[in-house]
Amino acid sequence: MRVTMIGTGYVGLVSGACFADFGHVVTCVDLNERKIEQLTNGKIPIFERGLAELVATNVREERLSFTTDLKIAVKNADAVFIAVGTPTRRGDGLADLRYVRQAAKDIAAVIDGFTVIINKSTVPVGTGDEVEKIIREQNPDADFAVVSNPEFLREGAAINDFKRPDRVVIGTDDPRAEAVMKELYRPLYLSETPILFTSRRSSELIKYAANAFLATKITFINEMADICEKVGADVQAVSRGMGLDKRIGAKFLNAGPGYGGSCFPKDTLALVGTAREVGAETGIVAAVIEANDRRKIRMADKVTQACGGDVSGKTIAVLGVAFKPNTDDVRDAPSLQILPALQQQGAKIRAFDPEAMDEAQLVLSDVQWCADAYECADGADVLVIITEWDQFRALDMGRLQQLMRQPSIVDLRNIYDPAAVRAAGFSYIGIGRT
Question: Which of 346, 350, 314, 345 is nearest to 335 (CA)?
Fold first, then answer.
């Protein structure tokens, strides 16, 4: 099939490359000429393992191309995906739909023949209705159907998530659109992927409901970790005991410094904003947002505790600033609140992240960026692990002890055994463990 992907951000680029790898002919469109030039030349603007190779392969085999010419791309397409950004709108927490609306207007101006228009962007309930209305008003003679097809891609595992998803959700009541969507995702039938066809509004809400629930699981286990610290229990044992219950499941029950990234913060806020607009209550989700914000700030207190109650003049070595490993994304990362909180108390920050330092430098100031974990630890009073990159999981404790001014570790991801670290001569503070 001929597919056009409007937007070459994280979702658009990964989805476009994966559809091309399925055998469809995909054109990715973006108004940013420099970005399109970079993509055409094989330069990938985001870090996602395997994506550069996937793009290169499909460009070489002429199934994937990039352009700024939306007219040609849409005119020749059977399916047009809207995969533009929907950032949080200032003031009310709702999703900013200006880019979605503009995409709808641009599509309406050039649509030719029956075309399925698919919202891949994360959008509030009713956005599909709005997109349909815009196109109908702009081009009353257009033959089209608007479909909701939310993405469920985890950064760092996006290609696998696209090709081997838990499910595909498609919102439409148009038989022609359903046939097109079945053909687009036909390669997944071989792996018996559940494909849920539902109403457009239900599909839109599924995305928000899923992310809000996962954010709630993270926040819940973080609160259990706080209790564990007070009563002398081990949150990892508690998490395992809970997770073995098949009704609960083990995923997203890892205690830490709070959730971040491009989805959970934005989507929970948008869900609460939508509920407020329609007069529904979302007390649980609102409490999750508030608790998560508080948690990030409190993580700085653990570092202060490790420094004897005062970080003024102390050097803090920070390992990991991305919101999770295997990505360069720092959006709403815990580090963005932890580091400034320590700096306000007079701490000097040294930091290292395998991929996210370029992005972090745009939003964090007065940080000394280092080449690796050991350079970062050199002369530090405490080593703080914020992101659980694999390369941080087996650090040479003897080498660290020689480099650091004080042998002290604050492990905000619980990747080390407290007894083993203490046996190596370090003081150790984790999450929900004593």
Answer: 350
Report yes or no: 388 and 334 within 8 Å, Cβ to Cβ: no
Could you tell me the CA-to-CA distances from 178 to 4, 58, 141, 295 in Å, in that order?
A: 17, 26, 21, 44
Supply the mean pLDDT for the chain. Answer: 96
Residues 215 and 194 in one domain: no
Angle between helices 283-306 and 335-344 (to 10 degrees): 50
- Residue-number span of the structural domain to which 352 is assigned: 199-434
Residue 396 tokens read as 């040479």
Amino acid at 41: N
Question: Do 358 and 276 reside in the same domain of the chain?
Answer: yes
Residue 424 tokens read as 């190596």
Catalytic residue among 263, 307, 370, 376: 263
Strand partners, 115: 144
Is 376 in the active site? no
**Are the beta carbons of 334 and 296 closer than 8 angstroms?**
yes
Task: List pLDDT tens digits, range 167-183.
Answer: 999 999 999 999 999 99
Non-local CB neighbours of 122 within 8 Å, separated by 6+ positions: 86, 95, 150, 151, 207, 208, 263, 266, 267, 270
Q: Indicate whether 176 and 218 sit together in one domain.
A: no
Give 318-351 pLDDT, tens digit per residue: 999 999 999 999 999 999 999 999 999 999 999 9
Count, residues in the chain: 434
Same domain, 398 and 308: yes
**Cβ–Cβ < 8 Å for 414, 432:** yes
CATH number at residue 81: 3.40.50.720
CA 33 to chain CA centroid, Å, is 25
Which among 171, 198, 225 is the end of a domain? 198
